[in-house]
Design brief:
single chain; about 80 residues; 4 helices; about 0% strand
């Protein structure tokens, strides 16, 4: 069974939803600011968005890739 989403104020919920729409991938920034894990973010988005908007957000997040980090010496070339 999924863990319940921590209690957030309506203002915090708006900020989480906006951050999730803006960031690609959104999980790291939201984790740092609000302390929500990826599963909790997904639950919150599913609860707060319309089904069509959630489907669009989920497809966008699924297709997003983390930025690549160039290897630095001495571990890379």
């Amino acid at each position: 069974m999924a863990k319940p989403i921590p209690k957030l104020s309506p203002d915090e919920i708006k900020r989480v939803v906006n951050a999730a729409w803006d960031a690609l991938p959104p999980y790291e920034a939201i984790q740092m600011e609000f302390g929500l894990r990826p599963g909790e973010i997904t639950q919150l988005m599913k609860r707060e968005l319309t089904p069509a908007a959630h489907k669009q957000w989920a497809a966008r997040v699924k297709g997003a890739k983390a930025p690549t980090v160039k290897a630095k010496w001495p571990h890379g070339r």
